[in-house]
Amino acid sequence: MNIGTIVIHVTSGRPVVSRCEEAPTGIRLIPAANAAALAAQATLALDNQGVSLDEEGLYLSSDELQAAAVFPPMELPADAITYGAARTILYPDLIPNTGWQRVRRDVEAGKLRVWRVGIGQDRRQYVSRADVMRLVEERTVPAMV
C-alpha cells in the first residue's frame, strides 16, 4: 500500500483534503489541519473532475491542493531506502525494467510497505531495508523437502 497519498475525501456532502495512511484494518484518513480552509479549492478540483459533492468517496487531489495541505509529519522507517535501491538489492541480475515490475509486484502482494513522500514530480517512494533483506533471505533459503 502506498502511504502518504493525498486525496479529497467526500463525506456527508463535504470535501476534506486527507492523507491516506496504512492501518491494521486497511487505510486511515488523516484530515489536513487546514482542511476547512481548503474546502473551496477541493470543491473546484472535484468540479474539474466532474464529481458532485453528493458522490461520497475518495478522489484525486491536484498538485496545488496537495502543496497547500498541512499535515502532521509522517514517520519514515529508520532504515528507509528508495525503490531503486530495493530493486538493485532484490533483483540485481535483471534488467532495470523487469526489476521495477517485480518490485511493484512485491508491493501489490503486500510483501513491501511503501512510504510516498512529496508531490507530483518531486514524489519519492521508500521501503524498509529490513523488509527488503527479509525478502532476499526468503528467496535464498532452500525449501524444506
What does this structure look like?
The chain has 145 residues and is an alpha+beta fold. The chain is built from 5 helices and 8 strands; from the N terminus they run E-E-E-E-H-E-H-E-H-H-E-E-H. It folds into 2 domains: 67 residues, no CATH class; 61 residues. 34% of the residues lie in helices and 28% in strands. The strands form 2 sheets. Strands 1-7-8-6 form a 4-stranded mixed β-sheet. Strands 4-3-2-5 form a 4-stranded antiparallel β-sheet. The longest helix is centred in the C-terminal third of the chain and has 13 residues. The chain is elongated. The relative contact order is 0.16.
Class based on secondary structure composition and strand pairing: alpha+beta
Total strands: the figure is: 8
- Tell me the count of domains: 2
- What's the SSE pattern? EEEEHEHEHHEEH
Strand order of the largest sheet: 1-7-8-6
Largest sheet: 4 strands, mixed
Can you give the helix content as a percent range? 25-40%
Alpha carbon gyration radius:
18 Å
* Amino- and carboxy-terminal Cα gap: 33 Å
* SS summary, helix count: 5
Residue ranges: pLDDT <50 for 5 or more in a row?
Answer: none
- What fraction of the residues are assigned to beta strands by DSSP? 25-35%
Q: How would you state the average pLDDT, rounded?
A: 87
Q: What overall geometry do the principal axes of the alpha carbons give? A: elongated
What's the helix and strand layout?
Blueprint: E1 2-3, E2 6-11, E3 14-23, E4 26-31, H1 39-48, E5 57-60, H2 63-68, E6 80-82, H3 83-90, H4 96-108, E7 114-117, E8 124-128, H5 129-140
Parallel strand pairs: 1-7
Antiparallel strand pairs: 2-3, 2-5, 3-4, 6-8, 7-8
